[in-house]
Specification:
GO terms for molecular function: carbohydrate binding. With 349 residues, the chain is mainly beta. The protein contains no helices and 27 strands.
Length: 349
Amino acid sequence: GNQVSYDEADSILVEAWGGNGGDEWSYKLKSPIKEILINHGQIIDSITFRTINNEQNIIDSPRFGGNGGRRDKVTIEAAPLEYLRGIKGTYGNYGGKMVIKSLSFVTNGKNIYGPFGNKGGDGNPFSLVMKEGGAIVGFHGRCGSYLDAIGVYLQKLTTPTTPQKQDDDQKKVEPNEPLLVEEIEIHEKLDVMKTIVPRSAGPWGGCSGKGWDDGVFSTIKQVQVYMNTISSAISGIQIQYEKKLDKTLFWSQLHGGLGAGNDTIRKIIIDGENEFLIGIEGYYSPVDNNGGHDTIRQIAFYTSKGKYGPYGTEIGNYFSSSAARGKIVGFHGKSGVYLNAIGVHMEYF
């Protein structure tokens, strides 16, 4: 059967729902979750995660939130075979602050625990429930006196396989199967979108270099492409995202770019109100200066308004992301001295 791995490197961050009060918190599971302790009344006051490690020791997370409310407990009886695959809830105004008002949890046993908190159903609903093949392996958000915001880390489940010995030269990256989500409802301006979430497409290119994943965000504002003119290859990429909670902008790490110096930089500015990224395409092939590894040679970006690029040189194997109606909400890939591979997270309409 499927196994949940608690290797943090593989998880995908999904942006939090709720308000921007309190302080940021993050808790990645190192072992299966056994209980969730929830303090609640009219809202969710706090949440604590209880896991059991291989030595059968019980480990409690910090309490995320304040001391108010009455305490209830979700017990995942069949852990580790039963695990979380969904979260639902509402957020709204409480005493002038935007906070999490109710929460429910969904497991692969088709069990739904909750709702906890305000059962009246007022507030903005949110929901992320994965189909079989995905698990929630951590949580993050904001908290102070209450639970201000909550988001998750997702992971694609692995089916146990026997490793096969292969030469590096023969390995080609096959696009990952999409990780399907039954329903994510994003209620903003009363638009309801049914979507599918990571890890959707790619990465395309080589399999050397360090894997990276920026996560999933509502808006991408800018992309900077670094082109190495001597090697005719893309040496790096950097993306500016907008956080939906407080509308702050932040840049990802520069993915690649360790061989910088001969770079031409191209900047794409996306008008986030009326324009969004819908697809990428390009070429990859081995580059001598990159140890003969497959490297992205050319990349172009499509938005709802037009095309930016292509940047780089058309050499090697062609790739393109899906033509399904949707928008790009994040990037992942592999990089080192150059950008070796790139993939996208899609939100489908």
